[in-house]
């Protein structure tokens, strides 16, 4: 069930299975999709108060960058 859920929430909508195929996978009548060797990059779209146009931060595991095209929109990418 987890693999089907992950494939249905893929960031690229063209790579998500159609609902009928997802139902067949859950029923066991269609093969499960193969998982990629590496997780895709995460892009989050979130309205934020005005901040500098770009910034970055590093955690113990990931480096995240923030960029914005205007005062109300920010894009985050973590790798």
Query: Beta-strand level of the residues, as a percent range?
Result: 25-35%
Helix count, per DSSP? Answer: 2
pLDDT under 50 segments (min length 5)?
none
Task: Give me the Rg, rounded.
Answer: 17 Å
| Shape type | elongated
The helix/strand order is HHEEEE
Q: In terms of quaternary structure, what is this?
A: single chain
Q: Structural class, please?
A: alpha+beta
Strand order of the largest sheet: 1-4-3-2
Helicity, as a percent range: 10-25%
The overall pLDDT, averaged over residues, is 76
- Domains, number: 2
Give an overview of the whole structure.
Residues 50-79 are annotated as: Disordered. It comes from Ananas comosus. Residues 57-79 have a biased composition (Polar residues). This protein is of the alpha+beta class and 79 residues long. The protein has two domains: 1-37, no CATH class; 41-79, no CATH class. The protein is 20% helix and 30% strand. The protein is built from two helices and four strands, in the order H-H-E-E-E-E. The protein has a four-stranded antiparallel sheet, with no helix packed on it. A hairpin with a 4-residue loop joins strand 2 and strand 3 (63-70). The longest helix has 9 residues, at 19-27. The radius of gyration is 17 Å and the shape is elongated. The model has no long low-confidence stretch (mean pLDDT 76).
């Amino acid at each position: 069930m987890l693999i089907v859920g992950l494939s249905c929430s893929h960031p690229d909508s063209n790579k998500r299975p159609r609902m009928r195929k997802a139902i067949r996978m859950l029923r066991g009548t269609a093969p499960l999709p193969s998982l990629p060797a590496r997780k895709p990059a995460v892009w989050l779209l979130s309205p934020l108060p005005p901040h500098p146009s770009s910034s970055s931060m590093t955690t113990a595991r990931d480096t995240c960058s923030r960029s914005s095209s205007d005062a109300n929109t920010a894009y985050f990418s973590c790798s």
